[in-house]
């Protein structure tokens, strides 16, 4: 079974094959469940012209925000971009292309891409700028727009536990976009908190089966809080 071992022992090996102008699908929601070390490795590699598909672009100086510092991102396909001043600056200056996508549509684009479905119809966005230039069809008297699915050259994902065969479990809300992203990459790399022996994961609890995963690396995580809010009432 040694040939099924997907564990790599360096971030360079984890992101081997990444080159300029590729598309990367990144799991996470805000700073929750993001593959921190893999993002830092992309920054270190200096890869340029990247298209990033992700819920957002991190914050200034952390997460995907690191890739903005060297202007490595050419285009963002995302649903929320409100926590990053550098993102705003590059968008307004024309240095960064942005394709805003409704959040549920973005999730379905990843899921459909991973399932081999090229496009789907959704009512979300009809009658808004989101629908401009897209095919419209009517089902049961209601108009729907066609959205194309998304796949990437790489998918980078963060998991809680995994075995060396690539079976993954996510913890609580860190599940978010990670299992969807994991299915949609030609090469899927998972950064994991804990590596366990095969058989230690309850089969019914596995969120991403190892068939979707190409590489596993055990990471160290800072786990920043995106926005800390403390109640003043007792």
From TrEMBL:
Family membership: Belongs to the 3-oxoacid CoA-transferase subunit A family.
Keyword terms: Transferase
Protein's UniProt name: Succinyl-CoA--3-ketoacid-CoA transferase
Organism: Paraglaciecola hydrolytica
Keyword ATP-binding applies: no
A Pfam entry, by short name: CoA_trans
Transferase among keywords: yes
InterPro entries: 3-oxoacid_CoA-transf_A (IPR012792), CoA_trans_fam_I (IPR004165), CoA_transf_BS (IPR004163), NagB/RpiA_transferase-like (IPR037171)
One MF term in the entry's GO annotations: CoA-transferase activity
NCBIfam families: pcaI_scoA_fam
SMART domains recorded: CoA_trans
């Amino acid at each position: 079974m040694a040939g099924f071992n997907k564990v790599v022992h360096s971030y360079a090996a984890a992101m081997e094959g990444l080159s300029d102008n590729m598309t990367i699908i990144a799991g996470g929601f805000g700073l929750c469940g993001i593959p921190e070390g893999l993002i830092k490795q992309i920054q270190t590699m200096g890869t340029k012209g990247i298209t990033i598909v992700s819920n957002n672009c991190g914050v200034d100086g952390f997460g995907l925000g690191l890739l903005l510092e060297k202007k490595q991102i050419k285009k963002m396909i995302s649903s929320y971009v409100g926590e990053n001043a550098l993102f705003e600056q590059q968008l307004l200056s024309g240095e960064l292309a942005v394709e805003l996508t409704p959040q549920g549509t973005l999730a379905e684009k990843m899921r459909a891409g991973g399932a081999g479905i090229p496009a789907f119809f959704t009512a979300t966005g009809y009658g808004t700028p989101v629908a401009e230039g897209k095919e419209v069809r009517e089902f049961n008297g209601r108009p729907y727009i066609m959205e194309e699915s998304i796949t990437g050259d790489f998918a980078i994902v963060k998991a809680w536990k995994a075995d060396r065969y690539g079976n993954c479990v996510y913890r609580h809300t860190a599940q978010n976009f990670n299992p969807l992203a994991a299915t949609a990459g030609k090469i899927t790399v998972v950064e994991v908190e804990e590596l366990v022996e095969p058989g230690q994961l309850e089969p019914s609890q596995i969120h991403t089966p190892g068939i979707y995963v190409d590489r596993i690396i055990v990471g160290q995580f800072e786990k920043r809080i995106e926005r800390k809010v403390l109640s003043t009432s007792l």
